[in-house]
Design brief:
The complex is a heterodimer of chains A (449) and B (441). With 449 residues, chain A is an alpha/beta fold. Chain A is built from 14 helices and 20 strands. Chain A folds into two domains: 312 residues, Aldolase class I (TIM Barrel, Alpha-Beta Barrel), CATH 3.20.20; 129 residues, Alpha-Beta Plaits (2-Layer Sandwich). In chain A, helix 1 packs parallel to helix 2 and helix 8 crosses helix 10. The relative contact order of chain A is 0.11. Chain B has three domains: 109 residues, Fumarate Reductase Iron-sulfur Protein, Chain B, domain 2; 161 residues, FAD/NAD(P)-binding domain, CATH 3.50.50.60; 123 residues, 3-Layer(bba) Sandwich (FAD/NAD(P)-binding domain), CATH 3.50.50.60. In chain B, helix 5 packs across helix 8. Classes of the chains: A alpha/beta (449), B alpha/beta (441). At the A-B interface, helix 11 of A face helix 2 and helix 3 of B. The complex binds flavin-adenine dinucleotide, flavin mononucleotide and iron/sulfur cluster (SF4) (3 copies). The site of one iron/sulfur cluster has 14 residues of chain B, from helix 3 and helix 4.
């Protein structure tokens, strides 16, 4: 049986699934309920000087019938007094001594930092997370992402905290920066024991086109919020990878951003994360999703023969290369499984209008199964991505695997296109129809105009 | 045995005749429209006789542009709402949906269509502007799907239109033919009112065109005439006893049912003669009216029935039983019908052969003739130079122009009786035929 126990820079938890600092960790009540349901850890809703929140706080991006594929908020840190939170931290720790309770903190002055670090440690917190991420509300006051975007300031505050902290310190990074490894390196320089990322991305999720106000609307006005949910996972994965690969960062990582199921968690771990944190998925479906997260991760590990999380942590990292190190000799083309094809012709129109005119329709209108024109197919994958049938279009390898040549190697050999009309242009000998052929092509009968 | 109790109130009637395709809520429409794949050159479009751009209107429903969706539908089909409810979608668009190829439920195109059009009918939103006045006038005979569709399209093209309708209500068989669980009278009439409000054609009710004088009058006043009179009453069988009390045409039965609802008299033991869709409807309807037994009697085997298999299934589900390979030879009874005498057939080389001394009597107290509608041959003979084919259908060229060049036609009167959607498709084309004809004048 897979062992899910997790140790992030000395913070232990029964599994790698933590609740991120957010509304699900507002209170001891919620965290006890979550631990009871099976969550391994929780990062308390950020503590500091309590705030006053606005009413109407969230906005969402829905994709067709899927609600909340992206989620944004204009909430601030906790609005509850510190003493209530501290009392509840103690209660939770008493009842769940083996679960990780991490206090997320955000204050201004050195004195405040020292004070609050001591307070949460006395209450029993297993670790501290420094919130340098909030992209709205707090940064205007010189906190949150205003700190996260200034590596020097970030480092200074980490140093303040480390002056007094006895428990491990995690620095939470904002993605609203062009090179995530800069604040990550500053965190390390300041003595941080770990990093967590990503916090939310500055965003406007949509605009009410009748009232002319972005969402969420507060009395006819709005403000930018922080974006999260499944839509941000790709950005988070890339940033986690960047930090995990950078030799000067070299810190344990708690991965955050769009984790909803066990597969997402596996992906973060494969790119170097030690634990993962979840917010939106819990806000959407409740604490109960932990059952799927745990059972899916266990099954995956058993199937792969991984006894512990360490067995596969970072296992995908060696396979993430720079573009110039990819093999230009590798060649795949699309292949349609005719027995699975349902004849929607989405692949046809995608390739025809959006790629390389490498898919043909039958001249017999009764036969709706398209066919790949192998010599035109550049192997971009598009058709296989739009096909609505599982495993109907597959990408088949066409080269014999004996040749290997990268852009880097070609550059070194001087074998790359240099002029605008260079003979070495990659697409020079690809077939492209004459422009005017577009106008004589047969159109479906309902295309008008 | 039928599972339905005889309805005695309007509420009980409504329960027994619960819509087959209930109107979708916004939520259901949102989820269902999300499933559409937006196929290229979509097979559903090509299966629709009016060629509605189905993936487009479904996408418009999905992205919150229901008016746009309704417009897309009406651009191709002026009976968009009725069709969403009454079309045999299993045989048309939904039957062609690519999801069928992966054993996934096809998109509910008909119900989505009814949903989108319902929104604009309810809000009375005008989506179209009539064409610039051409100064030409067209008479339309019959306010059924064919006549009304022609009128709308002619108004789009700028011609003035007067519609002459024999009955007191518009919509033709949509009001007195189609089964009540497909479309209510109100829905049918409201759609026509919505169209009339938008297109401003004149509707004259209780104005049957009934003879040569009437036709000549119209020819004098109008630049062109569109015939949309559909078919006639149920044809007789030509067997003894057909005039007994309790024997009636299936079509005439539906007409009473559509208007009198639960007050429609129905027998306890009903025999429906015929194997077409009208026979299946009459059987389903008799069951829902609480008949104790309903038997569909058909001369040939089940595979040769003209009815769609889903209509036969519906009749069976409603409680009807079927007798195959039997020919009625006499309706029995003393004043009122008491039974039908049948003889069994076998078919030899496609021909029916009665089996000697195989007669039997099936008792009943009502007989519904699903034997098809006759053509209005006598009336049409009054139009000078109007040719009919052997089956009594009006002969047309590719512009739906008849052999009397001033007359155009579409719908059941021309095609011999198909579906509402065919009438709508043809009438639209016929209006363009009229337009070219008038431009040439
Ligand atoms: C029982 C039954 C059930 C059906 N069910 C379905 C169904 O579920 N789905 C479907 O798509 N189709 C169905 N149909 C077929 C469909 O109703 C017809 O194909 C369609 O209505 C044809 O339209 P139309 O305008 O040509 O004729 P009709 O609908 O018959 O309209 C003709 C109109 O002309 C009027 N008229 C006739 N003579 C004159 C005259 N001399 N002067 C003035 N006005 C006149 C009539 O009163 C009527 O209003 C059904 C038909 C029947 C009989
Ligand atoms: C395959 C692909 C190639 C792209 N190439 C370019 C490019 O050459 N130049 C550019 O400015 N943006 C490029 N983009 C980015 C797009 O212009 C656009 O900014 C981005 O996809 C976001 O828009 P979307 O969410 O609608 O896709 C590319 C996007 C895709 C998907
Ligand atoms: S892989 Fe790309 S180029 Fe090849 S057929 Fe598919 S869409 Fe076209
Ligand atoms: S996208 Fe897939 S299912 Fe659709 S036509 Fe292409 S191969 Fe067939
Ligand atoms: S065939 Fe089905 S999935 Fe494809 S466009 Fe039509 S309704 Fe949508």
């Amino acid at each position: 049986m897979a062992d899910l126990r997790t140790n992030l820079a000395g913070i232990n938890s029964p599994n790698p699934f933590w609740l991120a600092s957010a509304p699900p960790t507002n209170s001891g009540y919620q965290i006890m309920k979550a631990f009871d349901a099976g969550w391994g850890g929780a990062v308390w809703k950020t503590l500091g000087v309590p705030v006053v929140n606005v009413s109407s706080r969230y906005g969402a991006v829905n994709y067709r019938d899927k609600r909340m594929v992206g989620f944004n908020n204009i909430e601030l840190i906790t609005d509850r007094p510190l003493k209530d939170n501290l009392r509840e931290i103690s209660e939770v720790k008493k009842r769940f001594p083996d679960h990780a309770v991490i206090a997320s903190l955000m204050v201004e002055t050195k004195e405040e930092w020292h004070q609050i670090v001591r307070d949460v440690e006395n209450a029993g917190a297993d670790g501290i997370e420094l919130n340098f991420g909030c992209p709205h509300g707090m940064c205007e006051r010189g906190m949150g992402s205003a700190v996260g975007q200034e590596p020097k300031v970030l480092q200074m505050i980490v140093e303040w905290v480390k002056e007094v902290a006895k428990v491990p310190v995690i620095t939470k990074l904002t993605p609203n920066i062009s090179d995530i490894t800069r604040p990550a390196r500053a965190a390390r320089a300041g003595g941080s024991d770990a990093i967590s990322l990503i916090n939310t991305i500055q965003s406007i999720v949509g605009v009410d086109i009748d009232q002319f106000v972005p969402y969420p609307i507060v009395d006819g006005k709005s403000t930018n919020g922080g974006y999260c949910g499944p839509a941000v996972k790709p950005i988070a994965l890339n940033m986690v990878k960047n930090c995990a690969q950078h030799p000067d960062v070299n810190l344990p990582i708690s991965g955050i951003g769009g984790v909803e199921n066990w597969r997402d968690a596996v992906e973060f771990i494969l790119l170097g994360a030690t634990s993962v944190q979840v917010c939106t998925a819990v806000m959407h479906f409740g604490f109960g999703i932990i059952r799927d997260l745990k059972s899916g991760l266990e099954r995956y590990m058993d199937e792969k023969g991984f006894a512990t999380l360490d067995d596969f942590r970072g296992k995908a990292l060696p396979n993430v290369k720079h573009w110039e190190d990819l093999n230009l000799k590798y060649k795949v083309t699309a292949s349609i499984n005719e027995s699975k094809c349902i004849g929607c012709q989405l692949c046809y129109t995608a390739c025809e209008d959006g790629a390389h005119q490498a898919i043909a329709l039958s001249s017999d209108p009764a036969n709706r199964i398209p066919s790949i024109i192998d010599e035109n197919c550049v192997g971009c994958n598009l058709c296989s991505l739009v096909c609505p049938v599982e495993d109907c279009i597959t990408m088949e390898r066409r080269d014999d695997g004996t040749e290997h040549l990268t852009w880097g190697e070609r550059t070194a050999a001087g074998n790359i296109p240099k002029g605008f009309n260079d003979e070495l242009a990659g697409g020079l000998h690809h077939w492209v129809p004459e422009p005017a052929e577009a106008l004589v092509k047969k159109k479906p009968r309902h295309y008008k105009g | 045995m039928s599972e339905y109790k005889k309805p005695t109130t309007e509420a009980e009637f409504a329960a027994n005749f619960h819509p087959k395709k209930p109107l979708m809520s916004d939520t259901e429409a949102y989820y269902e429209s999300s499933r559409c794949l937006y196929c290229y050159d979509a097979p559903c479009i090509n299966a629709c006789p009016t060629g509605i751009d189905i993936p487009l209107f479904i996408r418009q429903i999905n992205d919150g542009n229901k008016e746009g969706a309704a417009k897309t539908i009406y651009e191709s089909n002026w009976f968009g709402h009725a069709c969403g409810n009454v079309c045999p979608t299993e045989e048309l668009c939904e039957g062609a949906c690519v999801y069928n190829n992966s054993d996934v439920k096809p998109i509910e195109i008909g119900r989505l269509q009814a949903h989108a059009t319902d929104q604009v009918i309810r809000s009375k939103k005008k989506l179209f502007r009539t064409g610039k006045d051409t100064g030409k006038t067209v008479a339309v005979i019959g306010a059924g799907p064919a006549g009304i569709s022609a009128a709308c399209e002619l108004r789009m093209l700028g011609h003035a239109v007067d519609v002459y309708e024999a009955k007191a209500q518009p919509s033709g068989l949509c009001v007195y033919g189609v089964a009540p669980y497909k479309l209510t009278n109100e829905e049918a009439v409201e759609e026509v009112a919505y169209l009339q409000d938008q297109f401003g054609f004149n509707l004259h009710y209780n104005k049957p065109v009934s003879g040569r004088a009437d036709f000549e009058n119209l020819e004098e006043v109008y630049d062109a005439i569109f015939i949309g009179i559909g078919l006639g009453g149920t044809s007789t069988l030509g067997i003894p006893g057909e005039d007994k009390k309790g024997v009636m045409g299936a079509l005439e039965f539906v007409e009473v049912l559509r208007n009198k609802h639960h007050a429609t008299p129905v027998g306890k033991k009903v025999i429906v003669l015929g194997g077409g869709n009208t026979a299946m409807d009459a059987a389903s309807e008799s069951c829902r009216m609480g008949a104790e037994s309903v038997i569909i009697a058909y001369r040939r085997g089940p595979e040769e029935m003209g009815a769609y298999s889903f209509e036969f299934d519906l009749a069976k589900k409603s409680g009807a039983k079927a007798l195959f390979n039997v020919t009625p030879v006499e309706v029995l009874g003393n004043g009122s019908v008491t039974g039908v005498k049948f003889i069994r057939n076998r078919s030899a080389n496609g021909k029916l052969e009665p089996i000697a001394s195989s007669e039997f009597v099936e008792p009943c107290d009502m007989v519904l003739l699903g034997t098809g509608q006759g053509k209005q041959v006598e009336l049409l003979k009054e139009v000078s130079g109007l040719a009919l084919d052997q089956k009594g259908r009006i002969v047309v060229n590719e512009h739906f122009q008849t052999t009397n060049t001033k007359y155009f036609t579409a719908g059941d009167a021309m095609n011999g009786g198909v579906e509402v959607v065919n009438a709508a498709a043809e009438a639209k084309k016929a209006a363009h035929g009229i337009h070219s004809f008038l431009k040439g004048k």
